[in-house]
């Protein structure tokens, strides 16, 4: 069974099913969503357990010719339906399955326009999964854009009072970023040749399986010398082929050797910067982060969970999968800048979180701060740094989901998220307080929880990096103190001391069964991944060590 | 049982205590208390067993924890005499404190939480003690910080306690940043975080780098051992329950910094040693001076702990430091538990006053004779009087300093100041004993006959700790530090104190202690109302307020600038869109309109040609036809 297609299209089909079912099935939609995301999670776990931990190759590969268009002397367009998993996408896919499932439990709270909500939610689930699995740039871009639509409506229709503003802001930001990605994608398309298809078109081989290393080298040599007739050239969006400098047409805009410049900047550097801007908006990095607090504050709880838990990770994933893989030269050249923005995000996000009176905003800014560690780790160009960046993304997915669910608990009861509206909640809601304490301590990087591993090793990577000055690691470490500051401060103000609430004291009850069901697994996972880091490192390491070879000359 | 199993048992027994408390919960309060105390006893026995079983010298057991690429991160144990000593010490004091707590916390409704947190603390502390690796040590180091946070803030309804717990955690984190960076630098140079490699010194690392590494690691010690300038959290930490103060904030956790120094001491260069000595001296004097002016019984002891930790630093992490760590753990835990006994007794005698305020005490020797004797013995040990344990270890440190002074003259200054510290210690302790036990009761809220000793659960730990503060326990000749069995224990190879005995040191320190006692006795009846300003307001003004201010500023910046810029950018587009729309309407459309208009005008002009008169039509038709014919003809080229 094509398991990965199942992961993507099961929710999409379910989404259509929910959309066409009559409204009389209204009460069943949440169960459909729960079951479908549950199946998706089960599929992810199956893939996770069957993933070959020794291999750095793409696994569970599915390839289908999708669009092939002959353009005569302009060559042939080839867009493939190409999905697969390696050590970079595996943790993200698992995270997607997990967070989507938890989010669908949380969605039981949704009490209006259920049909549209669950249909969009399932659509989102499929397109996010597709985004992490796609290996064809065009396909990736398609899923990437497709995510925007359900997200826009989920915030815009079920959000808080300023939902239209927030959803539009989110939409414009991401769309703005994706234009940069689109430009680079088109540039890459014109620059990269698929040697396999080209060999077939030029008559060297009949099917791809006949390809031998000799023929491959021969083809690349011919491409380099421009000895293949243009009509035999097959252009491709295959990202695996884009990492090989031998597949670039020598005179093309983005080839290593052409030395072409745009606005007197080398074109490859410019393309790298474009990609980084596009993905940094998604991450988000300071200074393009201002959509995040607004989107979070207005989004309903499950959408916040999905947004923080998964969507932000597409930014970091895009860094590694696309920007760094295809433009290693740019990555090396701009390492200091990227790390600087990472450190800026860490410190700036933490300071902003410290000033927030809205609990949800505080957590949103803490996300900015935590994603800064991801940027710093990636920028270090060390294996521990990049592994840790992936770890940090996975860990943040778990922890931020937990944090937003916890805010949701309070908001659902009293509709007030202000920190100064509560005091001494521990007296009235001890179980809730225990979960908050776990989530807060895990988020501030306490050892034995997953966040620590990510932060520690990304800082260590930054410290050991030969590309970065040591001061970045020092400043990043300073962010850890600030992190402890805002979390403990919130804990002190809201949960300890004498009990007092601004209003609706009678509505404050401790966690109900459904909430415990959502929070307990997340707490356990944060703990498990804190003491058993090899669960993820074993998966990411082989791929990253292969990836690191891009910088060995 | 093999060694590894035994070590794992020692490490995991307290953890199982914590898990039990979480699982059993509030309904089994007493059961949890009994079980965790029993587990502590069991763990003490395990530690004894380990001590008997394990080969002499040091043993390392290493397990792979996980690996990133080829870089394996290991989880290893290092068993050497220092480890053995700490295992026994931590487990032993934990057991006594738990026993004491059964009575002290008897009326507490959330006992399970208290005993669970204590177990969590013991687990984390044993982790620090057992590991051979800085990375793993850092993990447990933070967990110790967590358990300290949880225990200081145990009474979470009390705002002061919550504030103190937060402060303790944050101040410790500041020191831990240095520790963290020290670990990075250590790894950067040695390619591992295993500190047992340090024995084969001379790794070809440059001296400045080693100095920097040493200083950064020392930052961890400054935080955890409450050294200047990060000492301010410890006095506040007294908001926690008193047995917790005895275990964590006197005997064990704060000693973790000294333990760290002892572990990584081989990499310390002369510059690092000098820095440690300077910080230690400042802290020792500062703590002693602050202790003089306190009126809260526990705060005196807290500042005294800070001061004594400073003295341990003066031993520069050598065996002398460790010796003082050991003796101090007993007598300071004894003092804290005695203070707990006093507070407990006063609490039960009446309400409506601060049971920790020494100004409301006095004359307690008659009502609490047992506690008085224990307090006296432990105080004499603290003051370093002959025949008591503190005398031996203090002399060891002073002799170490004298030996150091042979290498570098500047250590004479430290030696001199250490003597001063000895005098001050004797001074404030005499005053404290006088205030608590001397004279008559100065408290109107309670009748003195209501004050009585607590049960055996309180008395037994006090008694044991007092006995262990007597010099004979450590040396058959309690006047000579060099004769102690401690040296055989800690370094079996040589079995000797590394420093020359010097009787002048002993005589000098005793003289100063005596002067201190005399001065303390003479001034004992006067309560100093003077309060020396603490560092807190300064830190508040220099660090906390600017940090919060900056955060508010950055938040405004975020809202007013970043968001506005984006807003303007987007609005710019909207304006541009409107302009284009205008252009479209007036210019593009205008062109179309213009052409339509022109066409209209032309139409109306030509309309006049069509007057509706048939004759005119015919005329115009003719004219038109003629013109056409002319045109066509003119085009024909012959």
Topology record:
The complex is a heterodimer of chains A (553) and B (638).
Chain A lengths: L2 H18 L8 H22 L8 E12 L5 E10 L3 H18 L7 H20 L3 H22 L4 H29 L3 H7 L11 H12 L9 E3 L2 H4 L18 E2 L2 E2 H16 L8 H8 L2 H26 L1 H6 L1 H21 L3 H21 L3 H32 L7 E2 L1 H4 L1 H14 L6 H15 L6 H25 L4 E2 L11 H19 L2 H15 L5
Parallel strand pairs in A: 2-3
Antiparallel strand pairs in A: 1-2, 4-5, 6-7
Chain B lengths: L2 H22 L4 H25 L5 E10 L2 E9 L1 H24 L6 H20 L3 H19 L6 H32 L16 H18 L8 H4 L5 H10 L4 H9 L5 H23 L4 H18 L4 H31 L14 H4 L1 H15 L5 H19 L2 H28 L18 H12 L3 H4 L11 H5 L12 H21 L12 H74 L4 H22 L3
Antiparallel strand pairs in B: 1-2
| Residue-averaged pLDDT of chain A | 88
Radius of gyration of chain A: 24 Å
* Largest inter-chain contact set: A-B, 55 and 46 residues
Could you give the order of the helices and strands of chain B? HHEEHHHHHHHHHHHHHHHHHHHHH
- Class derived from helix and strand content of chain A: mainly alpha
Question: Beta-strand percentage of chain A?
Answer: 5-15%
Q: How far from one another are the termini of chain B?
A: 127 Å
Assembly type: heterodimer
Summarize the biggest pleated sheet of chain A: 3 strands, mixed
The class by helix and strand makeup of chain B works out as: mainly alpha
Q: Give the biggest beta sheet of chain B.
A: 2 strands, antiparallel
Distance between the termini of chain A: 40 Å
The low-pLDDT segments of chain B are: none
Enumerate the strands of the largest sheet of chain A in spatial order, edge to edge or round the barrel. Answer: 1-2-3
**CA-based shape of chain A:** globular
Low-confidence stretches of chain A: none
């Amino acid at each position: 069974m094509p398991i990965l297609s199942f992961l993507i299209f099961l929710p999409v089909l379910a989404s259509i099913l929910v959309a066409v079912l009559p409204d009389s099935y209204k009460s069943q939609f949440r169960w459909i969503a729960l079951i479908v995301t549950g199946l998706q999670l089960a599929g992810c776990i199956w893939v996770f357990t069957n993933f070959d931990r020794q291999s750095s190759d793409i696994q569970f590969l599915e390839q289908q010719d999708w669009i092939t268009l002959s353009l005569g002397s302009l060559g042939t367009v080839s867009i493939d339906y190409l999905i697969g998993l390696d050590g970079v996408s595996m943790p993200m896919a698992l995270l997607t399955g997990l967070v989507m499932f938890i989010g669908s439990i949380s969605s039981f709270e949704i009490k209006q326009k259920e049909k549209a909500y669950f249909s969009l939610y399932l659509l989102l689930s499929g397109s996010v999964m597709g985004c992490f699995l796609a290996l064809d740039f065009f396909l990736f871009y398609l899923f990437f854009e497709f995510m925007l639509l359900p997200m826009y409506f989920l915030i815009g229709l079920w959000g808080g009072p300023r939902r239209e503003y927030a959803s539009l802001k989110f939409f414009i930001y991401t769309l703005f970023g994706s234009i940069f990605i689109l430009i680079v994608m088109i540039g890459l398309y014109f620059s990269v040749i698929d040697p396999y298809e080209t060999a077939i078109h030029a008559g060297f081989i009949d099917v791809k399986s006949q390809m031998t290393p000799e023929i491959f080298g021969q083809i690349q040599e011919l491409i380099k010398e421009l000895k293949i007739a243009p009509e035999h050239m097959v252009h491709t969006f295959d990202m695996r082929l884009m990492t090989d400098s031998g597949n670039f047409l020598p005179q093309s805009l983005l080839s290593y050797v052409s030395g072409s410049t745009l606005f007197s900047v080398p074109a490859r550097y410019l393309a790298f910067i474009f990609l980084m801007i596009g993905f940094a908006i998604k991450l988000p990095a300071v200074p393009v982060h201002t959509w995040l607090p607004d989107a979070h504050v207005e989004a309903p709880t499950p959408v916040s969970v999905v947004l923080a838990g998964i969507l932000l990770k597409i930014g970091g994933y895009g860094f590694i999968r696309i920007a760094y893989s295809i433009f290693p030269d740019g990555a090396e050249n701009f390492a200091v800048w990227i790390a600087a923005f990472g450190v800026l995000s860490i410190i700036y996000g933490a300071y902003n979180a410290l000033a927030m009176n809205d609990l949800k905003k505080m957590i949103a800014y803490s996300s900015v701060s935590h994603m800064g560690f991801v940027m710093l780790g990636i920028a270090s160009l060390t294996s521990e740094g990049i592994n840790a960046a992936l770890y940090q993304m996975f860990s943040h997915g778990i922890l931020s989901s937990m944090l937003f669910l916890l805010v949701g608990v309070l908001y659902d009861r009293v509709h007030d998220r202000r920190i100064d509206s509560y005091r001494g909640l521990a007296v009235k809601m001890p179980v809730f307080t225990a979960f908050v304490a776990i989530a807060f301590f895990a988020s501030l990087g306490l050892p034995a929880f997953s966040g620590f591993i990510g932060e520690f090793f990304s800082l260590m990577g930054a410290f050991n990096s030969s590309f970065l000055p040591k001061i970045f690691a020092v400043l990043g470490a300073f962010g850890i103190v600030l992190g402890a500051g805002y979390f403990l401060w919130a804990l002190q103000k809201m949960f300890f001391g004498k009990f007092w609430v601004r209003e609706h004291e009678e509505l404050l009850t401790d966690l109900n069964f459904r909430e415990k069901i959502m929070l307990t697994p997340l707490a356990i996972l944060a703990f498990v991944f804190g003491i058993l880091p090899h669960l993820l490192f074993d998966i990411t390491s082989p791929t990253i060590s292969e990836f690191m070879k891009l910088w060995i000359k | 049982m093999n060694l590894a199993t035994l070590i794992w048992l020692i490490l995991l027994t307290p953890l199982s205590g914590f898990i039990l408390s979480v699982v059993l919960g509030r309904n089994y309060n007493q059961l949890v208390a009994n079980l965790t105390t029993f587990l502590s006893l069991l763990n003490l026995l395990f530690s004894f067993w380990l001590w008997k079983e394990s080969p002499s010298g040091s043993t390392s057991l290493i397990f792979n924890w996980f690996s990133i690429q080829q870089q394996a991160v290991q989880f290893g144990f290092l068993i050497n005499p220092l480890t053995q000593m700490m295992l026994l010490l931590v487990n032993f004091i934990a057991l006594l404190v738990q026993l004491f707590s059964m009575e002290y916390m008897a009326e507490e409704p959330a006992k399970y939480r208290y005993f669970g947190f204590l177990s969590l603390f013991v687990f984390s502390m044993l982790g620090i003690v057992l590991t051979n690796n800085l990375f793993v040590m850092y993990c447990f180091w933070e967990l110790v910080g967590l358990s300290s946070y949880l225990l200081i803030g145990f009474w979470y309804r009390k705002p002061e306690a919550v504030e103190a717990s937060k402060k303790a955690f944050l101040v410790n984190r500041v020191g831990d940043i240095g520790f963290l960076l020290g670990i990075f630098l250590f790894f950067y140079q040695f390619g591992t975080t295993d500190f047992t490699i340090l024995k084969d010194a001379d790794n070809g690392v440059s001296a400045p780098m080693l100095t920097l590494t040493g200083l950064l690691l020392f930052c961890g010690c400054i935080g955890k051992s409450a050294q200047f300038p990060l000492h301010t959290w410890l006095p506040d930490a007294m908001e926690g329950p008193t047995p917790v103060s005895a275990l964590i904030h006197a005997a064990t956790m704060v000693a973790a910094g000294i333990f760290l120094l002892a572990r990584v001491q081989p990499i310390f260069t002369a510059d690092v040693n000098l820095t440690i000595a300077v910080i230690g001296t400042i802290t020792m004097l500062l703590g002693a001076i602050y202790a003089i002016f306190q009126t809260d019984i526990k705060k005196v002891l807290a500042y005294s702990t800070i001061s004594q930790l400073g003295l341990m630093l003066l031993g520069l992490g050598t065996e002398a430091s460790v010796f003082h760590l050991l003796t101090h753990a007993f007598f300071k835990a004894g003092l804290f538990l005695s203070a707990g006994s006093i507070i407990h007794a006063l609490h039960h005698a009446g309400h409506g006053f601060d049971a920790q305020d020494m100004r409301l005490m006095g004359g307690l020797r008659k009502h609490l004779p047992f506690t008085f004797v224990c307090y006296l013995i432990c105080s004499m040990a603290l003051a370093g009087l002959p025949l008591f344990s503190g005398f031996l270890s203090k002399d060891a440190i002073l002799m170490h300093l004298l030996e150091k002074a042979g290498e570098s003259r500047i250590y004479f200054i430290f030696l001199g100041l250490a003597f001063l510290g000895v005098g001050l210690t004797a001074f404030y302790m005499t005053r404290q004993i006088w205030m608590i036990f001397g004279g008559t009761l100065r408290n109107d809220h309670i009748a003195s006959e209501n004050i009585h000793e607590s049960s055996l659960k309180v008395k037994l730990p006090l008694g044991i700790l007092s006995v262990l503060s007597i010099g004979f326990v450590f040396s058959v000749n309690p006047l000579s530090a060099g004769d102690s069995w401690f040296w055989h224990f800690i370094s079996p190879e040589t079995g000797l104190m590394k420093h020359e005995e010097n009787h002048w040191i002993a005589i000098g320190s005793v003289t100063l202690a005596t002067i201190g006692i005399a001065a303390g006795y003479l001034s004992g009846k006067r309560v100093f109302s003077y309060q020396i300003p603490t560092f807190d307001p300064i830190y508040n003004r220099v660090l906390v307020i600017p940090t919060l201010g900056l955060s508010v500023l950055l938040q405004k910046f975020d809202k007013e600038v970043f968001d506005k810029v984006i807003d303007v950018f987007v609005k710019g587009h909207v304006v541009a869109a409107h302009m284009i729309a205008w252009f479209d309407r007036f210019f593009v459309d205008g062109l179309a309109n213009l052409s339509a208009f022109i066409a209209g005008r032309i139409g109306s002009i030509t309309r006049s040609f069509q007057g509706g008169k048939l004759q005119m039509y015919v005329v115009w038709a003719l004219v038109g036809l003629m013109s056409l014919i002319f045109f066509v003809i003119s085009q024909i080229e012959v």
